[in-house]
Amino acid sequence: LIRRLADTGDLPDEELCRLLEQLFCHEAEEYRDILYKTARKVSVQTFGNKVYVRGLIEFTNYCRNNCYYCGIRAGNKKASRYRLTKEEILLCCREGCALGLRTFVLQGGEDMAYSPQDIGDIVAAIKQTWPDCAVTLSIGEHSREDYLLWRQAGADRYLLRHETADNAHYGKLHPPKLSLKHRVQCLYSLKELGYQTGAGFMVGSPGQTIECLVKDLRFLKKLQPEMIGIGPFIPHRDTPFASESPGSLTQTLVLLSIVRLMHPKALLPSTTALSTIDEKGRELGILAGANVVMPNLSPDGVRKKYMLYDNKRSEGSEAAQHLDQLASRFAAIGYTIDFGRGDAPSFR
Ligand code: SAM
């Protein structure tokens, strides 16, 4: 099945289901190694032994939503809230540019204190100051008009994980106000507007089954996003999911590899959540077929406040200021950092 998936880029749902069941088995280590190696080879064929770096600016932890899994949900009264000004965001970009970064990812909760025009102004200011840099937005669900405004202001990419492609599961992770249908509509609007678009999901979120995962894989195949974000679910102590178990390293790596085989040219990050559950998570993600990392470029004083899940890492090689540490960790596994803009191959 692994070979057929690698050759054809897809399998019928029943076979994907069987493959996941088999690879999740404790004893399947040998097969998992074959899978990782095959996915790694596919990634290297497109991107070489290189990893794109993005500067992640977590510019607000205010959010109007109440996703049950998320530490910055509106209902978490213990969260210490912050939002950055345009000038503070530009300072982060200035620092990032000096470090050699050429993509800035502006991520935050759905914070309505920034008007659509404010966000457009921030994007336009970054693009005017550093025209050779790419701007990625990751600020949730908004109207098509707002997405258009930001695209016209110069935004290049947009990350919006679909979280789960199963309706009932979506309902277990989110309050009734939020719907999978609307999230998917947003993703299609973003694609239509010419954004390099990112979807994705957490592995091991409460209530997730193998059938849910197969639906995720099917949805991604249909959407054909340029970027796919996959990381383990990790509980946060002040959320309704505080006592749930985290997603596993193995299952996350298996899914990264399968997604790589189904999307040979997608930009696939090895996520902070992966490196939070395992000291070697970043490297293992790369060795399973990922080709992007997003070190933290937020100001020091707020990093610890963007706490989506317990013990989220933002220091050492997670910090954009320590790209040297990241580079030497990658060198140890035979990879180098690519300081290019790192557009999706179809957009180059
Ligand atoms: N508000 C934007 C949105 O909804 O896309 C962007 C910010 S949101 C915090 C970014 C991502 O964090 C989500 O898509 C979700 O998958 C991930 N996330 C949130 N809570 C998490 C948790 N407890 N464990 C792992 N990932 C989590």
Automatic annotation (TrEMBL):
<feature type="binding site">
    <location>
        <position position="63"/>
    </location>
    <ligand>
        <name>[4Fe-4S] cluster</name>
    </ligand>
</feature>
<dbReference type="GO" id="GO:0046872">
    <property type="term" value="F:metal ion binding"/>
</dbReference>
<keyword id="KW-0004">4Fe-4S</keyword>
<keyword id="KW-0949">S-adenosyl-L-methionine</keyword>
<dbReference type="GO" id="GO:0044272">
    <property type="term" value="P:sulfur compound biosynthetic process"/>
</dbReference>
<feature type="binding site">
    <location>
        <position position="67"/>
    </location>
    <ligand>
        <name>[4Fe-4S] cluster</name>
    </ligand>
</feature>
<keyword id="KW-0408">Iron</keyword>
<feature type="binding site">
    <location>
        <position position="70"/>
    </location>
    <ligand>
        <name>[4Fe-4S] cluster</name>
    </ligand>
</feature>
<dbReference type="InterPro" id="IPR013785">
    <property type="entry name" value="Aldolase_TIM"/>
</dbReference>
<dbReference type="InterPro" id="IPR007197">
    <property type="entry name" value="rSAM"/>
</dbReference>
<keyword id="KW-0411">Iron-sulfur</keyword>
<feature type="binding site">
    <location>
        <position position="138"/>
    </location>
    <ligand>
        <name>(3R)-3-methyl-D-ornithine</name>
    </ligand>
</feature>
<dbReference type="GO" id="GO:0004076">
    <property type="term" value="F:biotin synthase activity"/>
</dbReference>
<protein>
    <submittedName>
        <fullName>Biotin synthase</fullName>
        <ecNumber>2.8.1.6</ecNumber>
    </submittedName>
</protein>
<dbReference type="InterPro" id="IPR006638">
    <property type="entry name" value="Elp3/MiaA/NifB-like_rSAM"/>
</dbReference>
<feature type="binding site">
    <location>
        <position position="163"/>
    </location>
    <ligand>
        <name>S-adenosyl-L-methionine</name>
    </ligand>
</feature>
<feature type="domain" description="Radical SAM core">
    <location>
        <begin position="49"/>
        <end position="265"/>
    </location>
</feature>
<dbReference type="InterPro" id="IPR010722">
    <property type="entry name" value="BATS_dom"/>
</dbReference>
<keyword id="KW-0808">Transferase</keyword>
<dbReference type="InterPro" id="IPR034422">
    <property type="entry name" value="HydE/PylB-like"/>
</dbReference>
<keyword id="KW-0479">Metal-binding</keyword>
<dbReference type="GO" id="GO:0042364">
    <property type="term" value="P:water-soluble vitamin biosynthetic process"/>
</dbReference>
<dbReference type="GO" id="GO:0051539">
    <property type="term" value="F:4 iron, 4 sulfur cluster binding"/>
</dbReference>
<dbReference type="InterPro" id="IPR024021">
    <property type="entry name" value="FeFe-hyd_HydE_rSAM"/>
</dbReference>
<dbReference type="InterPro" id="IPR058240">
    <property type="entry name" value="rSAM_sf"/>
</dbReference>
<dbReference type="Pfam" id="PF04055">
    <property type="entry name" value="Radical_SAM"/>
</dbReference>
<feature type="binding site">
    <location>
        <position position="183"/>
    </location>
    <ligand>
        <name>S-adenosyl-L-methionine</name>
    </ligand>
</feature>
